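User: Here's a structure from my thesis project, written as structure tokens. My advisor, Dr. K., wants to see whether a designed sequence matches the one we expressed. Can you design one independently, without my sequence as a hint?
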């Protein structure tokens, strides 16, 4: 009888034990940098329905939840999903369908790659991107003659690394109707002996784009998928694409909705009449993976091609100031239209003159706005008296690897005095309270670890200069990680959804093979991504074996 009563008591007590809650994923045994306001570290968290359900330590979470799947990080480091705040996702994919000229060190190497590509592909119109004459022994621009000799009957258009200069052959000039008399505001047809040399700076490039055959849907899908794979492998879970047309935005949306594309995209609408007429009338658009609420505007050109607009002449080209692509009165009218539609304005500004104009327009238009979060993309050369114009309402969006790529020749362009306000990331952070970080790929390499290294150590991948470049404007590791996660999410109006590992936010996170917050600075570029998760789903896993 006693045995029977005991069984009844055990059964009764068992019935009082609460049913465990279900969870989709437990992540355990990790050093997890949450990047919350306190910059806490934890060792485990659980995910349900794509969001962080609870953060804690492994034993308590395993006891509390009925876990469907477990990811054992085996002591590795986890950070929130990385956000590239300024890049060109579609253009990256396009470059993978064209001649890749990045990293070429001579004119001969460029030509060799183009010839090899054409032998393999035999295209009707040769396109490529990535050359930079500053990396050649002869740093003068190339001309059309060498392309004419190799490809007399095939149009060739090769885009400079920064996207602000185009090198073409005579056939392209003829088909585009470009002559010595061609005048385009906001750019230049470079002349040689009174004739077009084959180099086009900024706005005249549009004349060539009109004659390039339009890619079909399959081409565009391949481009986006190739670019996405590259990003996921390197730990990017959100990419801000700085300038997209409606057809590509809608293609991204359809791929995401069908599940064929996992990467999140913050799409800046390219400033064309057709795009603006559609999107500003429709209003902001957002899904769980796509946000469309901003417009990308070009203030000026690039420093490397001497298209950046400066207040005083270039130090290495007497009487040359660069040029505004969008003049200040046009910026003002555009800004008024954008703010009225409830959109964010993100303006490319490299030179100090362009930054003055953009900041002045922003201040005028946002005088009665308290949470606009408009961005100055690049904010590369700032006059000392203009740093104060940045704030949480006017946010600097910078690309640290630009500093370490440009440092070899930037002072030649600017002179020593203007260099004090150039690539001044810590100064911008102190003024605005934050900086958001990106790469500008494919202008620079995609790898966000290179971004992190350039921001912290201010060195290139050859660890030059030994003492770092203008180290007063280096960022701390915490500032850098925030700039690639929490602050980037804030600048996208998405701080409640992503940017840190906190309860209620999406489970976007990256597993790294070493602790980038503690390893020697020069080891940061060697950090590898072991796994990338979006919405708690593993979207990339390295085949590298990690030793326990």
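Assistant: Designed independently from the structure alone:
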């Amino acid at each position: 009888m006693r045995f029977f009563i005991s069984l009844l008591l055990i059964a009764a007590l068992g019935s009082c034990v609460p049913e465990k809650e279900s969870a989709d994923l437990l992540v355990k045994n990790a050093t997890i940098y949450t990047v919350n306001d306190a910059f806490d570290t934890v060792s485990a968290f659980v995910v349900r329905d794509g969001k962080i359900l609870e953060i804690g330590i492994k034993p308590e979470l395993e006891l509390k939840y009925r876990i469907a799947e477990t990811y054992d990080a085996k002591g590795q480091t986890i950070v929130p999903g990385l956000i590239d705040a300024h890049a060109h996702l579609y253009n990256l994919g396009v470059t993978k369908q064209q001649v890749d000229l990045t990293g070429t060190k001579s004119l001969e190497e460029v030509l060799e790659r183009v010839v090899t590509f054409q032998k393999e592909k035999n295209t009707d119109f040769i396109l490529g991107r990535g050359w930079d004459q500053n990396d050649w022994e002869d740093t003068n621009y190339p001309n059309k003659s060498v392309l004419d000799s190799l490809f007399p009957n095939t149009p060739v258009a090769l885009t400079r690394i920064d996207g602000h200069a185009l090198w073409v052959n005579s056939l392209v000039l003829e088909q585009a109707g470009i002559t010595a008399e061609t005048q385009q505001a906001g750019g230049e047809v470079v002349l040689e002996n009174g004739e077009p040399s084959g180099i086009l700076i900024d706005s005249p490039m549009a004349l060539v784009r009109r004659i390039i055959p339009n890619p079909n849907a399959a081409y565009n899908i391949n481009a986006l998928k190739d670019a996405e794979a590259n990003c996921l492998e390197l730990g990017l879970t959100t990419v801000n694409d700085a300038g997209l047309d409606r057809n590509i935005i809608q293609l991204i949306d359809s791929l995401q909705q069908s599940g064929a594309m996992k990467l999140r995209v913050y799409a800046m609408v390219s400033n064309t009449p057709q795009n603006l007429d559609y999107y500003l009338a429709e209003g902001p658009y957002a899904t769980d993976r796509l946000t469309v609420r901003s417009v990308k505007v070009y203030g000026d050109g690039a420093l490397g091609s001497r298209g950046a607009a400066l207040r005083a002449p270039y130090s290495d080209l007497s009487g040359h100031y660069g040029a505004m692509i969008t003049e200040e009165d046009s910026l003002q009218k555009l800004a008024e239209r954008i703010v009225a539609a409830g959109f964010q304005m993100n303006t490319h500004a490299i030179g100090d003159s362009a930054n003055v104009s953009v900041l002045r327009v922003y201040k005028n238009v946002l005088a009665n706005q308290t949470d606009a979060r408009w961005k100055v993309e690049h904010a590369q050369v700032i006059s000392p008296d203009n740093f104060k114009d940045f704030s949480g309402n006017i946010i600097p969006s910078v690309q640290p690897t630009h500093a370490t790529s440009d440092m070899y020749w930037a002072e030649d362009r600017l002179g020593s005095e203007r260099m004090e306000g150039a690539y001044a990331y810590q100064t911008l952070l102190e003024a605005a309270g934050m900086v958001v970080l990106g790469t500008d790929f494919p202008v620079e390499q995609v790898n966000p670890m290179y971004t992190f290294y350039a921001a912290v150590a201010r060195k290139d991948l050859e660890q030059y200069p030994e003492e770092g470049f203008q180290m007063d404007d280096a960022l701390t590791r915490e500032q850098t990680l925030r700039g690639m996660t929490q602050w980037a999410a804030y600048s996208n109006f998405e701080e409640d959804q992503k940017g840190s590992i906190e309860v209620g936010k999406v489970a976007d996170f990256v597993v790294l093979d070493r602790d980038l917050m503690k390893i020697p600075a020069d080891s940061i570029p060697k950090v590898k991504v072991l796994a990338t998760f979006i919405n708690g789903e593993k979207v990339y896993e390295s085949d590298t074996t990690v030793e326990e």
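When you compare it with your expressed construct, this may help: The chain has a mean pLDDT of 94.
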